[in-house]
Design goal:
By secondary structure, this protein is of the alpha+beta class. 51% of the residues lie in helices and 15% in strands.
């Protein structure tokens, strides 16, 4: 982004430079190999914490670094420059698992848990989706029944990012009546008796992302691990989704830009019919359309971030931004692979990897169809 932007100060740009150097040194040279091997070193969490990436946006009293949403956008986009969505998802899974702990956990719980997460020592995950339903949160079936000083949790969650390696799981459970009114959030720790996990591999993309199904079999979870008030979890989940969608939109927009940058370089070097590929009008038009969509989506993202920073809650537009970003990513990845031709169908180019990761972004964090319907309702349509 240009430093002339009204949204980014010199401090923002200095942070961008720091992260860009970190990604170039510690992530990008290894990212493709990590993706092929299906994992990445746990030590990367500590390195990311030391550079200010993991504690970004959290209270100083727990080891965080206070920051506005524009810092968060920078963080999402600089990590995305490596072109490996699975790494972004898992390395930064705390950004969906930890906010409810910070906002709604007891002081004792926060002091015990949050500093370990923000230092990179522990990993945080979010458990909402179940085998029987995803975007329909109100239909979740995992139960938590009160038994003295504990909740007894039974059920399962699936497609959980950082599901195998996480230490702390922010889990949506049913503590009351059917529908949204009976949902609560519990923090469940990995060594809880009766809690088990199985990995989900053979994914289309996000290969190095740790994805799992979680099983709860009479897990005894202390009442002190309840986040907020009992049966008030639905609103907490919705608020968390808004942040997640802005964060996802930032990453998807940068993945689109990565595709654009890669094929601009390729088109300048590749010779066809006696001239560079970029010398053909049809290719230039494709590139112009990619640039147009990326810049429009980035502008939408930054406008909504400014609104949120100024106390507004543009739910409809956040939903539509999430869709706009995934559609932009899809368009740019498709056009990039097309411009690369046969080279784009072989593993190696970032665009090929991003092309395979389009759908997971269009599904996760709220499917495109759900986003449209929620936005329409918010708009009174």
């Amino acid at each position: 982004m240009s430093s002339a932007s009204p949204f980014y100060t010199a401090e923002h740009e200095a942070f961008r430079d720091t992260l860009r150097s970190f990604v170039a040194k510690e992530i990008e040279p290894f990212a493709a190999d990590w993706d092929e091997s299906g994992t990445f070193p746990r030590e990367l969490y500590k390195k990311a914490a030391d550079v200010g990436l993991i504690p970004l946006g959290y209270p100083e009293q727990y080891g965080g670094v206070e920051a506005d949403l524009f810092y968060v956008i920078i963080a999402a986009q600089e990590v995305a420059r490596a072109g490996v969505g699975g790494l972004s998802a898992s390395l930064l899974s705390h950004n969906i698992g930890t906010p409810p702990i910070v906002k709604y956990g007891s002081e004792a719980l926060k002091e015990r848990v949050v500093p370990r997460i923000l230092s990179g020592e522990a990993i945080s995950a979010l458990g909402i989706t179940e085998p029987g339903g995803g975007s329909d949160v109100a239909a979740l079936k995992t139960t938590a029944k009160r038994d003295g000083d504990h909740f007894i949790v039974n059920g399962s969650k699936t497609f959980i990012t950082s599901g195998m390696r996480a230490d702390y799981y922010t889990v949506a459970v049913r503590t009351g009546e059917a529908g949204h009114k009976g949902i609560s959030l519990l923090l469940i720790e990995r060594d809880t008796e009766g809690f088990s996990r199985t990995p989900l591999d053979r994914k289309t993309g996000w290969w190095c992302s740790d994805t799992a199904t979680l099983y709860f079999d009479n897990c005894r979870v202390p009442v002190g691990n309840l986040l907020g008030e009992e049966n008030q979890g639905s609103k907490m989940i919705m608020n968390n989704f808004n942040f997640e969608r802005i964060f996802m939109a930032a990453g998807c927009t940068e993945f689109a830009r990565v595709c654009y940058d890669e094929v601009v370089d390729y088109a300048r070097q590749r010779q066809t019919f006696g001239k560079p590929l970029i010398g053909h009008q049809v290719i230039r038009h494709k590139l112009a359309d990619m640039h147009m969509r990326i810049e429009a989506t980035q502008a939408y993202l930054e406008k909504l971030a400014w609104q949120v920073e100024n106390g507004q809650n543009p739910i409809a537009d956040v939903c539509l931004l999430k869709n706009q970003s995934t559609l932009t990513m899809e368009f740019c990845a498709r056009e990039a692979v097309q411009i690369l031709g046969g080279a784009g169908y072989l593993r190696g180019p970032k665009s090929e990897r991003i092309y395979r990761e389009v759908r997971v972004n269009a599904i996760g964090g709220g499917a495109e169809e759900i986003m449209r319907d929620l936005a329409a309702r918010q708009l009174g349509l």
